Amino acid sequence: MYRYDAIDREFLTDRANEFRSQVVRRLAGEITEDQFKPLRLMNGLYLQLHAYMLRIAIPYGSLDSRQLRKLAEIARTYDKGYGHFTTRTNLQFHWIKLADAPDILDHLASVDMHAIQTSGNCIRNVTADPFSGATPEEIDDPRVWSEAIRQWSSLHPEFSFLPRKFKIAITASAKDRTAARVHDIGLAIKRDRSGALGFEVMVGGGLGATPYVGPTIREFLPASRLLSYLEAILRVYNRLGRRDNRTKARIKILVASLGAEEFARKVEAEWEAIGPGSDLPDTELARIRAAFAPTAFETLPARSTAFEEAKGTNPAFARFVRNNVKPHKAPGYAIVEVSLKAIGATPGDASAEQMEVVADLAERYGQNDIRVTHEQNLVLPHVKQDDLPTVYAALAAVDLATPNINLISDIIACPGLDYCALANARAIPVAQHIAERFADQDRAELIGELKIKISGCINACGHHHVGHIGILGVDKKGEEFYQLTLGGSGAEDASVGKVLGPALPANKVAEAIDAMVDVYLSQRQEGERFLDTLRRTGAAPFKEAVYADAH
Amino acid sequence: MRALTANRLVDGEVVFWNHGRWVERFAEAQLFGESDAAAAEAAEGHAKTQTTIVVEPYLIDLVESGEVWAPLSYRERLRALGPTNRHDHGKQTEGGAVVEALLHASGAARSKGRVDLIKRK
Amino acid sequence: MPTLIKLEAGRFTRAEDPFTSVGDDQELPPGDVIISLTRFQNDGERLLGQGRALGVRLEPAEEAAALAYDLPRIAVVALAFPGYRDGRAYTSARVLRERYGFKGEVRAVGDVLREQAQFMVRCGFDAFEPADGATPEEWAAAAARFRHVYQRAADSRAPAFAEREE
Predict the structure, then answer these.
(1) A6-110 maps to which CATH number?
(2) A32 touching chain B per CB within 8 A
(3) Within a 10 A sphere around the Cβ of A539, how many other Cβ atoms?
(4) B–A contact: 3+ Cβ pairs < 8 A
(5) FRET label pair with C147: which of A99, A482, A495, C118, CA 20 to 30 Å apart?
(6) Domain regions of chain A by residue span
(7) B82 and chain A: CB distance < 8 Å anywhere?
(8) Do B11 and A429 touch (CB under 8 A)?
């Protein structure tokens, strides 16, 4: 894992000091709210419905035990004892006081954490595959490149006042666990025919009011040229992105209006003029890479007797393994997904106690390594199969072992109108009702992979556009209504979901899901997930089932 | 009927105007009837000058619910009460008659204050 | 009372402004003037022939490339910030310095606030018309908040990766 050196640490200290002075000046009335707002946003501080919300950066979703414990401590000291993991793998605290924010940043800096650029019209947290360094599938470790981008983009003097926010994701396997195609820039690590390392560059994906799957503007970018190419893209965007209309200011609008080819031409021209000046020297790349050097794994047999026995004797453990445990590249190891979707709980929330349990498990059994996924769950990427029964028991004791990863109750939901000043409707209760309706684990496993994503407004922080079933909260004459979309996907087969029909009142949503699940179960063919059946049959049978009452 | 609300600058707490001071409980909010329109506008104007005390003050519409006045929109009820997924968080934990009434308030249409906020974005 | 802050040899000082900014419809006073790109394109040759020092003001949508051939004869390029959130001038400043090697004055005008001082300096601005009443000392303090930077820009600061190599 990347270790901050003296330079990185001084950077965080300077940033915390800067913010402290800005808060002092704001409270004293020396700067206006209008002048202060982007400054606090660039330190992740929003003013929400009930209080300030602080969004803490978890760069490429990676944490160690010390850091997770500090987040638990901050939750207890400055918030209400819990935090919320987001679809950009950051952590939000929803009950923060402005006056405490400078102290919180100091606490974060003490464990090499920060809230830099988690909001504002600047380059945001780079997200990466949560299984990096553990999955047998990856071509190269995306964290190396994420860290390089993190540093390059931090307080970039040219790109801190972009037309709008800018999000980058890096995927490193054929299976995309980052929704890269619906990011402003998605990078897919590849090797060319000679084996050289590089990136497929996709630009102009996005969600929100106008969702797009980003086109590929360059099939292969040599890895060593990454930063100069990003600079070229950002410069074209900074120059040409719309600034007259906030809803048309993202790069996806620019790419769509120029067309991918013309946009690519502009980028290539700029890139040629920029040259390699911004690229990292090999020494620095090597230094960052060394930080992510493959973890020292013990030499273990591929199969663990303790593990196999426990599966055989404990059906609950077996179910947990079936759903929440994934293969690891090192024999005898496993990737453990920690579900933050207990039935009836708030999706993505973790209490301070739960955070501490995960931190302890990571320290004792997990190489000190914790990841956050964009689906609001956690991962212990390096656990010995031998230790799985113990880890499972500890997770189960604090409600972190719901065996539902990728199943119907593994729902993504934004905080919604319960917390967010931008929302039109609540998202959390909708998620809870659906999860409760499908609490039966046998039924959930029978249904199989089904990704439901709920957003409380068109900003789509819940990623509803790329849900197999997407749910968008809307305000219809002051009442909360919910529009369903079908057939979205945030994986390597990215697609934007299509609206199913008229929005439904809150109390009809769970039964609509139920009706659609029944259609799927009756129609599916061998090996088809919900998404596959839907793509084959089209939406008609599902629509009919949902709106049957209308006839 | 209307009330004037804002978030307190120093801690983000939802507050309500009451004759020149800011209170945390909706139950103590000053109510502005139709004949008080001028007073309401004056209060909002005054609140907007308090730039080191509150952020973005605005008037909200209220509707009668039983014996009390309740914010018209869900959004404003949530601000007055707290989140619905954690009944142990926010102002609702105080309990009391007004909180109870708000929790069971009926009727919801667009609140003027909220429409203004949407337009402002 | 001059409201121009200049950055010279690493120091911020208050300076008299020898230039008068002139709108497109205004008559030109004698002496050094800053005019719009349009006015420069229409009338620049003539004015330069009069021996004046000339500055050109670029609005955010106007690109530095438009001045590329004329830069050796231009004393000042004033880059406008109609609102401080409009970040296009940062690109223009960098391009002026890094692509065209412009050695004259690059001036920030408009909604110019000390909170953005460091970004401006790093992009190559060396003159500032502050809109928030900032003094040169306040400007200097704001520009010096960070001991390290992570990326190359138009200034001469070594990015962190270069520091690490030492």
Answers:
(1) 3.90.480.20
(2) yes
(3) 20
(4) yes
(5) A99
(6) 6-110, 134-290, 305-397, 413-550
(7) yes
(8) no
pTM, two decimals, is 0.95
Place domain C4-165 in its CATH homologous superfamily.
Aldolase class I (3.20.20.70)
Q: How many CA atoms lie within 13 A of B39 on its CB side?
A: 14
- A222/B65: higher pLDDT: A222
Mean pLDDT computed over every residue of chain A: 96
**A494-537 confidence digits (pLDDT tens):** 999 999 999 999 999 999 999 999 999 999 999 999 999 999 99
- Contact assignment for C152 to A154 by CB distance below 8 Å: no
Q: CA A298 → CA A327, A367, A368, A386, A398, distances in Å?
A: 16, 11, 15, 12, 29
- Residues C151, A152: C-beta atoms closer than 8 Å: yes
> How far is A125 from A185, CA to CA, in rounded Å?
12
Our CA-based measurement puts residue C23 at a distance from the nearest CA of chain A, in whole angstroms, of 24
The nearest CA of chain A is from the CA of C93 a distance in Å of 9
Indicate the CATH number of A305-397 among 3.30.565.10, 3.40.1280.10, 3.90.226.10, 3.90.480.20.
3.90.480.20
CA A82 – CA A349 distance, rounded (Å): 7
What is residue A501's predicted lDDT score, i.e. its pLDDT? 95
Please determine whether the domains at A6-110 and A134-290 fall in the same fold group of CATH: no
Å between B91 CA and nearest CA of chain A:
9
The band of A392, judged by pLDDT with boundaries at 50, 70 and 90, is: very high
pLDDT of residue B98: 86
* Separation between Cα atoms, residue B44 and residue B38, nearest integer Å: 10
User: A199-221: per-residue pLDDT in tens?
Assistant: 999 999 999 999 999 999 999 99
Fold of A134-290: Sulfite Reductase Hemoprotein; domain 1 (3.30.413)
Q: Which CATH number is A413-550's, of 1.10.3720.10, 3.30.413.10, 3.50.50.60, 3.30.1070.10?
A: 3.30.413.10
* C116 CB-side CA count, 13 A: 31
Cα B114 from Cα A525, distance rounded (Å): 48
Is chain C touching chain A, with at least 3 CB–CB pairs below 8 Å?
Answer: yes
- Residue A49 has its nearest CB partner, among B51, B78, B109, at B78
Residues C123, A162: C-beta atoms closer than 8 Å: no
Mean pLDDT, residues A346-364: 98
